[in-house]
Amino acid sequence: MDSKKYDVITVGRSSIDLYSQNIGSSFNDIKGFDAFVGGSPLNIAVACARLELQASLLTAVGNDKVGDFIINFLKSEKVNTKCIPIKNGTRSSAVVLGIEPPDKFPLVFYRDNAADSHLDIDDVLDANIPDYRVLLINGTAMNVEPSRSATFFAAEIANKNDVDVVLDLDFRADQWHDYRAFGLTMRAILPKVKIAIGTEEEILAATLSEASQVVIKHQQISAPEIKGDINKSIAWLLSSGIETLLVKRGGDGVSIYSKDGSRKDVPGFPVEVVNVLGAGDAFAGGFLYGFLKGWSLYKSCRMGNASGAQVVTKNGCANFMPTIEESLKFIEAKGGF
């Protein structure tokens, strides 16, 4: 019998997300926005809670109305907020997002003096990490101090207390002073990680070591093109000590790579895409549900793919995560696991 009190705690950023109401319009032509919540760890916590897991979020908010907005939403979703400190003198984050299907989803972060970047070691101690079965950490939470040390410390505590560590690479180029620093940091944390999740771009970024591997497109520093041999990058990450690497491939599903070098492809679910933002977080929530229920990696990834497929048909992230009933019904309608 499992002695852990709770299922999963996610660590990292949280924000108010302002989504364009004018789907298909260019960013300059947006006339209005809908106010949702976001941030990858927040989205994953909500995804888990919707699937009836006991989920907590370890983030921080400012002493402001945006922080109140975020906390109120989380409470309404039954996400535990008891380990979310208020950081006086900081600001809760915001993100502004455009929606231009099928392949343009521009977004702008407002994270100067972000409250969640001020998470510290004491906040981790207060969160009681040993009480959980899974700790999910996030790449962006390690871009600055003190949240970087807090994340490493959380993983260290997890390793000592039989808590599985899952890493969402979450490469956000404009949040790093140097793209190579992202790779260095991810490679430093990976020995503490059991399962890593990322896109091919994020995996290439995690093995980035030379400036020549980065191509800046149209002078948009926040949207680099990373060059490299994806197979070599996957092998490099697997050599770090992780047991499993999940490579997200959008509509093509997910590939499971094991430390012995084997690969198993898990197909996705064809749907009409409205907005891809949040799909990876929905996947993580669905995957964690299966993982915590003791399912095979293949079946867990199918559950994750189902969650992602449902979210891409909506124009938001956390607010549209599927319930367990919705996901099981969706999978059955699409032919089952």
Short description:
The chain is 32% helix and 20% strand.
Descriptive notes:
By secondary structure, this protein is an alpha/beta fold. The two termini are 27 Å apart. Helix 1 packs across helix 8 and helix 6 crosses helix 7. The protein contains 10 helices and 14 strands. It has helices spanning 40-50, 65-76, 121-126, 147-160, 179-189, 200-206, 230-238, 279-292, 297-311, 324-333; strands at 6-11, 15-20, 33-38, 55-58, 93-97, 107-110, 132-138, 164-168, 195-199, 214-216, 224-226, 244-248, 254-258, 263-266. The strands form 3 sheets. It has an 8-stranded mixed sheet with strand order 4-1-7-8-9-12-13-14, with helices on both faces. Strands 3-2-5-6 form a 4-stranded mixed sheet. Strands 10-11 form a two-stranded antiparallel ribbon. The model is unreliable at 218-222 (pLDDT under 50). It has one domain: Ribokinase (UDP-N-acetylmuramoyl-L-alanine:D-glutamate ligase), CATH 3.40.1190.20.
